Amino acid sequence: MKTAQVHGENIIIKEMEDISLNGRKGAIVRVLGCGLCGSDIVKFREKIVHDGAVLGHEIVAVIDEINSDTRFKRGDKIVTSHHIPCGECIYCKHGNVSMCEHFKKTNIFPGGFSEKVFVSEEHLKNVAHLVPADITDEEISFYEPLGCCIRAIKRCNLIEGDKILTVGLGSIGLLMSEGIKALGYKVYGCDLLEDRIKLANSRGIESYNSKDLDKFAEIIQEKSCGIDAVFMTSGADKAIDVALKVVRKGGKILVFSSTPHNNGYPNNEIYYKELTILGSYSPSPKDLEDSFNLITKKKVNVRGLTSIYPIEKIQQAFDDTVSNKIFKAYIKIGEE
Ligand SMILES: [Zn+2]
Ligand SMILES: [Zn+2]
């Protein structure tokens, strides 16, 4: 079967031995397509994965072979995510499911950028869903990334009328903003790139250049005490300065991306303004279910965010994502 594998500085197309169930529980699926996640880029560029690794986890696929106690059958089109929490450890009990050891260990095999993937019985039971006919593959491929956003939004315990600022309007910043909007909160955005600001504005997300943030802070402080929660989806070192400028006293800063350097933390601002700083990493099965419902009930706008690349052009998809030429790549792998 055809796979895309990490090979030094490149992603190459390489044949790998075909997989089958061989008596195991679960399913072998034919991958129709797989979204390229920001975390795939980080793993590749920072060499977190070894040569031969198959990245990708945002898959849309058709079941080819199945041995399962679930409702799924051969020929079903499904969407699934890749990690499942145990539900019993100290992390799970406190709701930090993405810190669970079992969560980190579970995965689809060999990875989403592959013609075929093994999806375990546990995946089928907890995080897989049937894709309705009126949703496109690209739309439903936002199932896992939107799940991450939903989790972050829930972590903030927002209340009616809250104002949110998304710092960074790349694919995840836009998706986060669309999610916040879909859940009924007022969302603003900021970025340094004009075309991103323009796109966000055209989607109804009132957005500003981060350079003009003093002006934005003034506007927002005239209307209210400030921003209730700042979502840091930008991996830029300076994002925290932006957040501190606009967050109201008692407000929240939600950290949703890594930055190249650990900047220390703003001790005195956190103390005097009684701020809450939260991290949000990866979704629970319930967050994913919420994401699935928002997409399939068309309550969140995920259209027009993806650029489609055939698997043979996956290197181009990585390069174009890194150079901000596109928002989000969807790698097309198989036919229905
Ligand atoms: Zn992802
Ligand atoms: Zn656990």
Structure description:
It is a single chain. With 336 residues, the chain is of the alpha/beta class. The protein folds into two domains: 2-142 and 302-332, Quinone Oxidoreductase, Chain A, domain 1 (Alpha-Beta Complex), CATH 3.90.180; 149-279, 3-Layer(aba) Sandwich (Rossmann fold). Helix content is 32%, strand content 26%. The chain has 13 helices and 15 strands. It has helices spanning 38-45, 90-93, 101-105, 121-126, 137-140, 143-155, 171-182, 194-202, 213-223, 239-246, 267-272, 285-296, 314-322, and strands spanning 2-7, 10-15, 26-35, 58-67, 77-80, 116-119, 129-130, 163-167, 186-191, 206-209, 227-232, 247-255, 276-279, 306-310, 328-332. The strands form three sheets. Strands 3, 4, 5, 6, 7, 14 and 15 form a seven-stranded mixed beta sheet that branches. Strands 10-9-8-11-12-13 form a six-stranded parallel beta sheet, with helices on both faces. A hairpin with a 2-residue loop joins strand 1 (2-7) and strand 2. Helix 6 packs across helix 7 and helix 6 packs across helix 12. The longest helix has 13 residues, at 143-155. The two termini are 16 Å apart. The mean pLDDT is 94. The chain binds zinc ion (2 copies). One zinc ion binds at residues 85-86, 88-89, 91-92, 100, 102.
